[in-house]
Amino acid sequence: xxxxxxxxTLPAISVVLDGYYQDGERALxxxxxxxGLGETELALSGSIDDLFYGKLxxxxxxxxxxxxxxxxxxxxxxLALPAGFSVRAGRFLxxxxxxxxxxxxxxxxxxxxxxxxxFLGGHYFDxxxxxxxxxxxxxxxxxxxxxxxxxxxxxxxxxxxxxxGVYHAYTKFGGDIGTSHSWQLxxxxxxxxxxEASLEEHEEEEHEHDExxxxxxxxxxxxxxxxxxxxxxVYKWAPxxxxxxxxxxxxxxxxxxxxxYQEDEAGLPDDHSGWYLSxxxxxxxxxSVGLRYGELDAAMAHEEEHEGEHELHIESGKVKETDxxxxxxxxxxxTIRLQYSDIDDELFDSKDDQIISLQFIMALGAHGAHQF
Amino acid sequence: xxxxxxxxTLPAISVVLDGYYQDGERALxxxxxxxGLGETELALSGSIDDLFYGKLxxxxxxxxxxxxxxxxxxxxxxLALPAGFSVRAGRFLxxxxxxxxxxxxxxxxxxxxxxxxxFLGGHYFDxxxxxxxxxxxxxxxxxxxxxxxxxxxxxxxxxxxxxxGVYHAYTKFGGDIGTSHSWQLxxxxxxxxxxEASLEEHEEEEHEHDExxxxxxxxxxxxxxxxxxxxxxVYKWAPxxxxxxxxxxxxxxxxxxxxxYQEDEAGLPDDHSGWYLSxxxxxxxxxSVGLRYGELDAAMAHEEEHEGEHELHIESGKVKETDxxxxxxxxxxxTIRLQYSDIDDELFDSKDDQIISLQFIMALGAHGAHQF
Amino acid sequence: xxxxxxxxTLPAISVVLDGYYQDGERALxxxxxxxGLGETELALSGSIDDLFYGKLxxxxxxxxxxxxxxxxxxxxxxLALPAGFSVRAGRFLxxxxxxxxxxxxxxxxxxxxxxxxxFLGGHYFDxxxxxxxxxxxxxxxxxxxxxxxxxxxxxxxxxxxxxxGVYHAYTKFGGDIGTSHSWQLxxxxxxxxxxEASLEEHEEEEHEHDExxxxxxxxxxxxxxxxxxxxxxVYKWAPxxxxxxxxxxxxxxxxxxxxxYQEDEAGLPDDHSGWYLSxxxxxxxxxSVGLRYGELDAAMAHEEEHEGEHELHIESGKVKETDxxxxxxxxxxxTIRLQYSDIDDELFDSKDDQIISLQFIMALGAHGAHQF
Lengths: 372, 372, 372
Description:
3 copies of one chain form a homotrimer.
Chain A: E1 6-7, E2 12-23, E3 34-37, E4 40-47, E5 52-63, E6 66-78, E7 85-93, H1 114-119, E8 125-134, E9 140-148, E10 166-177, E11 181-192, H2 199-214, E12 227-237, E13 247-258, E14 271-284, E15 287-306, E16 309-331, E17 334-345, E18 354-365, E19 367-368
Antiparallel strand pairs in A: 2-3, 2-4, 2-18, 4-5, 5-6, 6-7, 7-8, 8-9, 9-10, 10-11, 11-12, 12-13, 13-14, 14-15, 15-16, 16-17, 17-18
């Protein structure tokens, strides 16, 4: 009775291969100097029945000869709730801002903007639930709330964390101007009950943390706070709404992290913030070029020995990144990208201020439709 | 010559998604307080040729932000041996008792009974070989023997373990009474050459072990012994043998663990034991309800400081669990379950004695037939 | 907009199951005493578009109850470059010698020859790029160069390694003699910028290293040097070129590792070397037999305490392995192999000099064509 007949239905299967050669390393980045692999992805998805859709995305990340398997997505989503409602549950990418709910492999640049790497660990996915509502209006309007476990956004060594740490509310508006122009605006408010760092804990943990940061590894967010705001705006132009040959995408986001410390001492920063402005032009079906500028404005606590006593020293600084990329697309499934990045880092002691990356991103199998 | 033509045949592929919100945590359980994922499963199976069937089941478990990939099954099984014989080799679930050779995602309750979590690590799979024989009789009768590596059932810090640690013999009988009633009885005897704990080793290892137990983590069995007996009985009722609309399943198992210690001192317990009685009623195709009561009767060694000397102190106690669940099934592939558990724990210092779990279990792709 | 229609195309999917029972353990081997699993493989491959082919090979290795997922391949390869050129990029098996670019599961013996285990970690795969050229000649002639990250071939604790550590150039010639005979010759030259060991570092690291070696674990190469040469020769005989019923394969390789130490002291060995000669005869479609003899001639540094001072002591020795196997193939997808190995080890203190292995290797799904 143990070997049994099966009903053959197949989920959609896709593999994303991402390899690179890079000259240099950036702070909080996921790619190292030399040859390497980005996130290799194996995704399976499909309808579970007429009411539920399911998706599993497994990511294999390799760093320093270690191979780590991560579950980036393991969720179900309702397909047929009435009145514009839908529910998603399990593990999924938070619908924060413009970039966070998109997969890394659809990015136009080699790495996420520095503010994403600093506040969201590159892309923030977690275990939880989402309720989303799309208004029955001509202008696109959606509202959503999410609740998450929140461990990857938790402050280091947070004592006695809430088991549901993160609540997130967002809204997005969008529409068209004539046939060639379209736009989208988004607002996000994230409450992180376990996000306030403690100076006392910070002191103890500083050393190892520093090492991780300098080695460029990136598990979870580097900066945390109780409140994270996000504003995003996207503008797209395509001649007569035809995205086949050429089009332009301009996007910008601003993120602000507040309520950083449990203590209320003088000299502590009130907030960290960051933003980026990205512009990508699809010249023709085979070529695209992009320019992105991003900033992070934050402060790091360093322990210093001063006359025999250990003192916590808060040093604020900026990271400024300019990325220029040119990409060749042989088909929708194959991209080769060359990127030049100029980095001005006052915060992490990056040793490289000029980075050149040559990357391929290619996909096998099923391929989902693109998001806005 | 390196890229080569392939003959396209496809194994059956299935994905199981399991997510939950839980209020509370139970001893030796696999689910934590708050949002989380159960075992996310990716299975591939099919005929290798006319003589062999093969199956690979990969399980991705996440606990405390760690992602662990486990191989739960990687076995071949003969399809065409004569005289009712079959052989299975590789890694597979031991055919111990009623529940152990079933996959977690087909369970009617959120967690395995406490006696399974304590003696078998929830479900015991291992590398080895099985020989099974089904008698050519009207009444279902099967006999089997299995040999396993046995490492996950090994006593902590067992010195110089046998490389083939576990031998297991089992038999099952089953039949029908009229058209609406059916039954199955099973007996299991498991010999674990590396299962006897040593008090000396125990003393050294107690501290870290305790921590693991209290955190609810569950790798391998918590209690071990040289001998494990199991008796199981299942009764099913379905009107005229039609399981489509409503049916009842009543199952019970009793497990006893003996030859616990290498030492023969006074005050040491002779055995640990546990049992459960489970009753699940499928009200109609969309709803089922279940009630399960289970006990574990065991003893834990604690080291205590007494007048400057460390003394090993054996404290016996019971864990009593009552689980009530109601499940909604939109189709064979989608289940949402609400469970309330009442726990009376004298053994592990569980802080929660009432646990509420809300769980979804959904499957994408191929779906094997159900076992008895 | 997040759940979207997909275009259903399917990569070829294959699963390889490898399980064994072994009596004994060999130095640098991947199989342990008792029951166990070899490398369980899940591979997905296919055309990305008309210009690129892609392949992902995930390997799940289990040792000592740990499960490790490794990415063995994650590469793209050009399909349509002119003039006999092709490029491969990402992670792939180096085309070194005869065996290295073949998958373990297509081997005729249970383990790779000892010289492969010692110099290449069994099989050397890495992140990098390959340029290959096939000459437009009647006699098969190919030339290739590869550049790799090189971390798995790095000397232990190498200070400040080059980010592109390994360069490899190779050439292969092949042809037929009449209708029944064919041959191939290969030459490989590998430059490893991070391969020279340092005696000072060696001293510090010796203890833990020793333990790893003795436990038989095998991550990366055990011996490293700045230069690795390889020569390989293969001869095949099949009556009238028909490989369906019976054929003979004789293959041999010689590897030499040079420039071993950064220091230039007297008493240090100039090189390590090793070779094997293998002969496999396919008696009929269902049975094959094979005999292989292999040697490793190397030296290990041991720290010794001598009159209160720690002294590094270089001890050279040979490992001689004779393997005899007989395999039963029910189909192209199912093999069961029995192997007897006789080992004469002066180098690693192996406790077993006679090893018997019983192994199954079976494949589900797509199956690539065999290489020469």
